[in-house]
Amino acid sequence: MKKRTPVSDIMTKNVITLNTTDDLEKAENLFKLHNIRHIPVVSGEAIIGMLSYTDLLRISFADATDDQDSDVDTVVYNMFTIEQVMAKNLISVSSSTTIKEVAELLSKKEFHALPVVDNNVLVGIVTTTDLINYLINQF
């Protein structure tokens, strides 16, 4: 295992993002369509928050499989904005941060994704799944 491998080697570079003007129904659709669990919220190229699928689950029935529950979700989603639900005090890393440093950060915190930011521009996202896949590939 290489000790100085940068996170840019394993991060997702084509990041799905949301804006504060988007609604939570759009967010849920993106989570399900792309099979992802974290979406950075941006203003221009700058990241201002992170929305997780867990955030939606806390306020809705988003994981219900019954299509009739979608009406309930829509009503609940209309009560909140993305800005109200997203995490705002983010820790980010740069693309040159080592995978080891990212793993240490994620192991000590309660979140499972970090935005990768260079010069105040979102360039990627790295998740615990990315780290696990990297580890698996080492064997």
How is this structure best described in words?
This is CBS domain-containing protein. Keywords: CBS domain. There is one protein chain. With 139 residues, this protein is of the alpha+beta class. It has one domain: CBS-domain. It has six helices and four strands; from the N terminus they run αββααααββα. The protein has a two-stranded antiparallel sheet. A two-stranded antiparallel ribbon has the order 3-4. The longest helix has 11 residues. The radius of gyration is 16 Å and the shape is globular. The termini are close together. The model has no long low-confidence stretch (mean pLDDT 88).
Short note summarizing the structure:
This protein has 139 residues and is α+β, with helices and mostly antiparallel strands.
Question: Percent range for helical residues?
Answer: 25-40%
The major beta sheet can be summarized as: 2 strands, antiparallel
Strand content: 15-25%
Order of helices and strands: HEEHHHHEEH
Number of domains: 1
**Largest sheet: spatial strand order:** 1-2
Domain CBS: 11-70, 86-139
Protein name: CBS domain-containing protein
Organism: Olleya marilimosa
InterPro entries: CBS_dom (IPR000644), CBS_dom_sf (IPR046342), Diverse_CBS-Domain (IPR051257)
Task: Give a quick set of tags describing it.
139 residues; alpha+beta; CBS-domain; two-stranded antiparallel ribbon; two-stranded antiparallel sheet; 37% helix; globular; CBS domain-containing protein; CBS_dom
